[in-house]
Write a structure and sequence with these properties.
Structural class: mainly alpha
Strand content: under 5%
Shape: globular
Mean pLDDT: 79
Largest sheet: none
Low-confidence stretches: 1-11, 454-497
Order of helices and strands: HHHHHHHHHHHHHHHHHHH
Distance between the termini: 44 Å
Helix content: over 70%
Amino acid sequence: MSKQAAQNTTNQITEGVIWKQLLIFFFPILFGTFFQQLYNTADAIIVGNFVGKEALASVGGSASTIINLLVGFFVGLSSGATVIISQYYGADNRRRVSDSVHTAIALAIAGGVVIMLIGLVSARFALTAMGTPDDILSLSLTYMKIYYLGTIPSMIYNMGSGILRAVGDSKRPLYFLIASCLVNIVLDLLFVAVLDMGVAGAAIATIASQFFSAILTLIALLRTQDSYRLIVSKIRFHRDLLFDIIKIGLPAGLQSAMYSISNLLIQSSINSFGTDTIAAWTAYGKVDSIFWMIMGAYGVSITTFAGQNFGAGKYDRIKKSVRICLGLAAVTSLFLSFIVLNFGGTILLLFTRDANVINICIGMMRVVSPAYITYICIEILSGTCRGCGDSFFPMLLTCFGVCVLRILWITIAVPLRHEVATVAFSYPLTWTITSILFILYYKRGKWMQKDTLRNAPQGQGKATRRMSALLSPGKKTPGRAFFRGFAGSFCYRTFSN
């Protein structure tokens, strides 16, 4: 994207017709998320049909849940970079955009190395601790170890695509995903169906396609002439920006980790029902991913939308975009509930022909799918808060409302009524409670009082101007002195404990 084109996109986000710009930004993200989901879905479809239900359970059961714990934490952490870059881009602070981009890429590389090492060392212990059945343990271990070898390019792609979306470019990440997904499917068929490499072939195909998407993303960042251009020699950590990224991203990362930990407990409960139930849970997870990828696209859209408008000081526009996005998400969730409840059984035939597995899966659908609409406030309102720099309290709400209550449900209710439906009910129960908490927090309006912009030139965005007036050196006033002293002592108390 050229500099002028990028700037036009940004102007549209901060000044265009809200519902049109949300949808224009939403659909490329949606299609991109769809193709990203096809990475694991293609693995599941191909190994489920060409290898068997044990292989299906191994690529989507405990292995997938453990991988999501580590990778999801970093993706949540990296969302802080997207917020920071979108705010500086909205304020037209070119220098800080550039510094943020190079800090973000450095974080992606370092994070990829750490996740790879932790994953390789802990894989067997984690699978055993979750009670993974013996008939799929070795297959799951093989898939995980190969997958972890590709975490560095995976992290680079996720961070790079987040940078592009932060500046308003949601189309090129889509194009890159389409291309890499096609590579993944072709290699899956080659390694699994033709060369009979089984689960190992599926994992190799996945990491090869991740390398491909990372290369395409890096090329886009290296070739642009806009402020977010990547220069290899400048890749390093800028301490203050790294602090800001972590301050915003760490709560999101912890939130993702708590999600994954609660899902680990749920997966452990599912494991106790046997391989057929694990395969059913895996298959339903792939069907259910349609809902998650659409809600995730709404969440990313509103985060970037809120971030750029916050940087430009257009707070009323943020509130209007929230109402519109909630309406769109509500209609979408009702439609998806109808589709899954009425056509879910047919969709399941893509993954398995085993009658018992399908029957178990349909039972799961009848519990979870009708409650999709109870989740939308969590995604939209938390995304809005993060876009405005407020990620700590949304993290607390999610950790308590979703994760803690879900863990309590699994540890207390499931032993009393040891059924798959009892496990599945933990989702609609916790979605409803957490949505109520988010609505109450959003109505209070304290999320609008956050600001993360540093060192922005005077006059570049109302939010920047407001904070610069309070924090910059100059004529001392009682109000300014009080604010600076309070802010300093607050940061010391908060981040030293």
